Structure formats: structure tokens, C-alpha cells
Amino acid sequence: MTTTIDGGWIIQTPVEKDNKDIFYKALKMLIRISYEPLEVGIKKYLGKTQYLFIAKSVAVMYPNQTGLVRIYIMAVLHHIEYKVINIEKIM
Fold it and tell me: Which residue, 4, 15, 48, 77, is most buried by CB atoms nearer than 10 A?
């Protein structure tokens, strides 16, 4: 299901396979915390595609610590590469 909200964001729940692939491609170098995308917002800005994922985070330590985060990703190089811009803890 998709919904458009203020600011031009298109919200997608559940996250479709194409956007999950982008999510995991951007996060492939991050270790010690695993992420699972729950929702994604997609927006075009100055000709570039921005993604805002709401994700479950699980820290790989004892005991496992879980939480929710916002992960901002931007498409670069004509959607060949994706760059993590920021990760913010929600809870």
C-alpha cells in the first residue's frame, strides 16, 4: 500500500522487494547491528531519489538490544550505488 504525505514523500508499507534490495545494498558495510526495513518513504529532491526507512534494529551483542531507527539513504551514480546519509534512533 502506498500513501502520499506532506513534503512529497510516498510511504510504502510493507516495503517492496526493489526497495529492500536498495536498503540492504546501502547497509552492506555496516556490522554489529542488523536492520529490518518496516516502512519506506521515497522522495525526489533536486533530481536525486531519497529514501527514509523506518527499521527495526538489533545490536549483535549479549543481550541483544532491539529498537527502531530512521535510516536516510540517497541514490547516487544513476541508482547504481546508494549512500547512507544518516541513522537516527527513534526508540
Answer: 15
Tell me if 42 sits within 8 A of 2, measured CB to CB. Answer: no
Cell of residue 13, nine digits:
508499507
Strands 2-4 and 81-89: unpaired
pTM of the entire predicted model = 0.85
- Which residue has cell 555496516? 30
Q: What is the pLDDT of residue 68?
A: 96
Reported as type and span, the H/E element at residue 78 is none
- The residue range of the domain holding 8 is 2-89
